[in-house]
Amino acid sequence: MEVKANLVPGNNGYKKVRFDSLLLLPYRDADLSTVLSQVSTIFIKEYSPGNLATTSFRGTPANHTQVEWNGINLNNPMLGQSDLSQIPVSAFNEIEVLYGAAGLTRTSGAFGGVVNLVTNPDWNNRIHAVAAQTLGSFENYTTQLNFIGGTSSFQSNTRLNYTSQRNNFPYYNENTGETVTQHDANVMQYGITEEAFWKIKDKHLLTARVWYSYDDRDIPPQVVGSYYLQKMLNKTLRTVLEYKLVEKYWNFSFRSAFVNQFMNYRYDNMFINDNHRYYSWLNSARFAYTRVKNLTIKPGLDYTYEHVRSDDYSGIKTRNTLGFYLEASYIFNDHISSRLVLREDFLDGKFMPFIPALGFDYKPFNKINLYLNANASRNYRYPSLNDLYWIPGGNPELKPEYDNGLDGGITYNYPSKNNAFFFETSLTGYYSWMHDMIVWSPMPSNPSVWTPQNVSAVNARGVEASLNLKWKINKLQITSAGNYTYCKSTNEKTTSPLDQSLGKQLIYTPENTFNETINLICWNFILGYNVNYVDKRYTSADNQSYMPGYSLSNIILGKSFVLHNFVISLLVKVNNVFDLDYQSVENWPMPGRNYSMTVKFEFKK
Amino acid sequence: MNLKSKVIRKNVFYSNIPGSRLVLFTFLFGLFLSGCSKTPIRETTVNQPAPIDTTASTYENGVFVVNEGNYTWANASISYITNSGDSVYQDIFQYANKRGLGDVAQSMKILGNKGFIIVNNNDRIEVVSLTNFKSLNTITGFSSPRYLEFVDSTKAYVTNMKANISVVDLRKMTIIKSIQTPYWTESLVRFGQYMFVTCMGSFNLPPADRKAQVYIIDTKTDMIVDSLLLGKDPVSITVDRKNKIWVISTGGYNNYEAPTLSRIDPVLMIVDKTFTFPAQQGVPSRLCINPTGDTLYFINGGVFQMPVNATALPTTALIPANGHLFYGLGIHPTTGQVFVSDAVNYVQSGYVFKCSQSSGQVLKTFTAGRIPGSFCFTTTTKK
After folding, report:
1. Contact (CB, 8 A) for A153 and A200
2. Residue in A2, A179, A226 to test binding to B, most B beta-carbons within 10 Å
3. Which of B31, B32, B41, B72 to mutate against chain A (most A CBs within 10 Å)?
4. Sheet of strand B194-201, all strands in order from the earlier edge strand to the far edge
5. What order do you get walking across the sheet with A545-547 strand by strand?
6. Which percentage of chain A shows pLDDT scores above 90?
7. Do residues B151 and B195 lie in contact, with contact meaning Cβ atoms separated by under 8 Å?
8. Confidence of residue A268 (pLDDT cuts 50, 70, 90)
9. What is the pLDDT of residues A508-520, one digit of tens each?
10. How far off is chain A from B240, nearest CA to CA, in Å?
11. Of A423, A443, A516, which has the smallest distance from its Cβ to B30's Cβ?
12. How far apart are CA B54 and CA B35, in angstroms?
């Protein structure tokens, strides 16, 4: 049994959690929102199948989670946030989640954190070919083809995925008192990924990646109201070149990526047919120097150029961001290590706020895997392009948003002697004070036009607890992963005398969430059970109305047949086992019990 | 370098494994949480409103507060304040029809015993009976409808944000034709045979490129017969007792130009007077007129009052804002009292203030729904 820690202790004071490919296995046919809502501590706000799914990470709005694919930002460049329903799990191998200040090693502006989707080469692999077909309820189909092949110094990874969804699920509509069928919720999505890795003498590593994705979908209707078809098309090409040189006392890495994204939104009844074309060129260089004992100094330089031509902006908008980065890690002794991160960005030649972060890791005992960590950081987020330039309403006068954060925790793991049992648990607390937060509201001059302003202040604090077990009893393997979060994220600024929202929980931010996944594996059988509980989410700022909490259960059952180099697997999933009639977001219907079945052929040599 | 990897391999003897009980516990906990609810999980309020006695209430003598609701949240609603007794009823459409009103209720108009509620982001008009507020018809096919004005008892015009003025046949309750306008049409007022409609220019253009004008439409032929150029973003229009038409232009968003109040002579078809507001000092909106047609009201932070024969803009507010976010304005057609709403922060229940037209003093405060944006007053006063 492979024993891998999900939590990454000893990260010099910054919290990092990894979901490996084994854990993601049952989710290969799903999108990122499903995985994160079932196994992570990030709250996912799901509108309806086929429609938007956004994040709330540590009580922050969606644009404070940066989603990356191997370090390349996947957030919608105009909105500054990601729709997780558009990201298929089949496009990557692992997920790493960097909490709060941990994200500063990658980017500024993600007050919640960074979700990085990772593909790494397996140099021991020779040939691994996969063909999988999923059939799901509501005419949902997914096809995946992977070919991974290579030698000990070269690996190529080719993936194709195709998804088509009708999402024509029935739901009870209390407005009409009838059970109706959801309509106009079609999704057609495909993606092609090619990744090549060359290794020369364990010294040079050259990586090239290309990902083309195509996503054509309807924007499904709400429960209330008449409906006219709205469509969204998204075509994105991402190309990345990476080079890494490893020497004895130093190493150097350089990455250059080019993103070409085309988006179209069509709403014929409203005469809207808007195109948005986005180009970006992202460069990042890091140099690490380790000659001085126990000290690693890592200076770096980032340069990003963005170019947008949108039917909803006036003219072409560009943005140049030059970032200076310095990271210093120091190991004081066997017990204490630390990391300092400094960042200074220049945006179109303007100085942005200086970012410092300092973290410590403390391991009090030699023989017990107990870690304590803490960090303090400052962060800022520059307004998104829509905040600045959207017509009508965009406000070019906007200032950055600020965050001052503290975070600390304790992690313990215990691997038994023969590796038959592995146990890890952690408890983290965080405190974050965010101000000058951007809120869109109607303009006094024309209430039908909304405009963003730096008006809000938010205090987010909370606790994250997790418990993971891996246990082997003869032929039976048991894995259990559980997470609990408590998040109090409150509005700390009001202007109107009648405003009752001061100190109240932000809307659509649950105070308590819990999820638990248990898998039993034996004789190539897998039986898995997942439950995720979401507490009530307020729908009014004064906390006078809310969507009640719910918990969803899902079951998987699978069996693999191994024939020499061939593996044939069958996986059946039952989602929403108890057929709960629920809404995650007010007035957006969600499906009851539903099923999917995957047949997978694998060849491995 | 990495502390973790060094230590992980060193194992501590550990004999009593507590895992099994924990796994069982969490499993059962999950089952418990999942199994307990069978009723649909929908929005709930903390303080449930007191049950309304439907048989006692009619909707023929009072004030309708049109609560826009949040854009794309489908939580628009209508509140009703009775003229006598100041009773307030919330969410009356939902109550009478057992369904939500929809997404963004923009405005409401009354003809006889029927109310016409414009549901902007559902592109429809709900026609309700004022006896019980039950839906009689739903007129569909608009393009982000804004305001409605009756031509006569058989025909009405509806402005649309995304171009064209819709002509509605009130007998068939359908759109019978569209008066082609390339741009966003907003506020409208009837003057004799003519309809004066403000046009904001294209929704998707910045203020500099927007052509703001008033279209004059002959309601007999449904043709645009004339137009007048105005200041950017003419949001509100009304007519006074001297048969002059008044328009507020906000100057475009982001303070593109100074806001103006223009007076149109509808006979000569000219702008015969323009008051310019001081630049960068608030933006006027929601132009209304009192029952006698001699005093204008508008919101500019606070609520201002201005006689139609004034020679300058008022400088002191009748009702100062004092931190309130005044959002909707209406003048009671019989009492002349000023109804102004406070949208608070747009994400909670708003308020309505009934104020004296002479002193501006708040006579009564009512709770309303989410983003109370406009008022509609019943036309006949029954005792």
Report:
1. yes
2. A226
3. B41
4. B184-191, B194-201, B213-218, B223-229
5. A537-538, A545-547, B44-45
6. 75
7. yes
8. confident
9. 999 999 999 999 9
10. 23
11. A516
12. 37
Distance CA A155, CA B202 (A): 54
Which strands, in side-by-side order, build the sheet including A16-19?
A16-19, A94-99, A113-118, A65-69, A72-73
CB contact A296 to B (< 8 Å): yes
A299, pLDDT greater than 50: yes
Query: In this predicted model, what pLDDT tens digit does every residue of A483-506 receive, in sequence order?
Result: 999 999 999 998 888 888 999 999
Residue A537: alpha-carbon gap to chain centroid: 21
pTM across the whole model: 0.88
CA–CA distances in Å: residue B342 to residues A442, B65, B349, B366: 13, 12, 9, 10
Pairing mode, strands A65-69 and A113-118: parallel
Show me where the domains of chain B are located: 3-377
| Interacting residues of B140 by C-beta distance below 8 A, sequence separation 6+ | A226, B123, B124
Residue of A nearest to B40 (CA): A581
**Cβ-Cβ contacts under 8 Å, B281 against chain A:** none
| pLDDT beyond 50 at B346 | yes
Confidence label for B382 from pLDDT (cuts 50, 70 and 90) = very low
B3-377: which CATH number, 3.30.700.20, 3.90.190.20, 1.10.10.10, 2.130.10.10? Answer: 2.130.10.10
The reply to whether residue A363 touches residue B342, judged by beta carbons under 8 angstroms, is no
- Residue A392, chain B, CB below 8 Å: the answer is yes
Average pLDDT score over residue span B281-301:
92
State the complex-level ipTM. 0.82
Look over chain B and give the mean of its residue pLDDT values, rounded to a whole number: 86
- CA distance linking residue A288 with residue A316, whole number of Å: 38
Question: CB distance A270–B23 less than 8 Å?
Answer: no
